[in-house]
Write a structure and sequence with these properties.
254 residues, alpha/beta, TIM Barrel, 12-stranded mixed sheet, 10 helices, 34% helix, 26% strand, globular
Length: 254
């Protein structure tokens, strides 16, 4: 197993870091530049920044946010939200992002994944996969878009395999059932995606205890572990998470 990476996530709205439960009940969680600088100093391996309202508001990612955050860090920055075309991807990378995360636009137009990886390389392209439980789906998980609000009657695991075939470099699955709840990652969902592809998979949504990070790796088979609330509100430091994982025999970066 490769060394596991820890990735804090900045969910952005109106220029501030925010955090909600199931993508609603949003509350302020601080300044993005201060958080970004702090997380790099703490030992974060990568950073994610998601403009959570961009798709719903039918607008592009705020490039000024990307500029501000990327200017204070040197670790890889993945930016998502409102990215729907090759021009959008070029603009976000040009503003300082190292990678982009596409979601709703890729579901609407899967060829965007292939075109993006051909233009910028698979290492630059992450596909975010949001899903909810639905027994009507073969895997039990239904793909949702537009900030987790709109089900699209597609099996999330089938979609993950399609993303791999189209050339995606990384997958970022988030369970809408677990997001922001601090009740643990949705391990069955994370594992279903990770076991269906050969790509790096980011565990996302619901971390609340140190043991949750361990389970994301040992049971969910994730390569990268993303968290927001527990880092923003200083429940745990990144150093604490890494030390805990090492104590459980898990190799981590740094």
């Amino acid at each position: 197993m490769d060394a596991i990476k820890i990735m804090p996530c900045l969910d952005m709205k109106e220029g501030r870091v925010v955090k909600g439960v199931h993508f609603v009940d949003i509350r302020d969680a601080g300044d993005p530049v201060e958080h970004a600088r702090f997380y790099q100093e703490e030992g974060a391996d990568e950073l994610a920044m998601l403009d959570i309202a961009a798709t719903q508001e039918n607008r592009k990612t705020r490039l000024e946010w990307v500029n501000k955050v990327s200017s204070v860090i040197s670790i890889p920055l993945t930016v998502g939200g409102g990215i729907g075309s090759l021009n959008d991807i070029e603009a976000v990378l040009g503003a300082g992002a190292d990678k982009v995360s596409i979601n709703s636009a890729a579901v609407r137009n899967p060829d965007l994944i292939r075109e993006a990886t051909e233009a910028f390389g698979p290492g630059k392209i992450t596909v975010a996969i949001d899903a909810r439980r639905n027994k009507a789906m073969a895997s039990g998980f239904e793909l949702v878009v537009s900030g987790g609000n709109v089900p699209v009657a597609k099996d999330a695991v089938d979609w993950a395999q399609r993303c791999e075939q189209l050339g995606a470099g990384t997958l970022l699955p988030t369970s809408m059932d677990g997001d922001g709840t601090l009740s643990g990652y949705d391990i069955p969902f994370t594992r279903a995606i990770a076991d269906a592809v050969k790509l790096p998979v980011v565990a996302s949504g619901g971390a609340g205890r140190l043991e949750d990070f361990e389970k994301a790796v040992t049971e969910g088979h994730a390569s990268i572990v993303l968290a927001a609330s527990v880092f923003h509100f200083r429940t745990f430091s990144i150093a604490e998470v890494k030390a805990f994982l090492r104590s459980r025999g898990i190799k981590v970066v740094g």
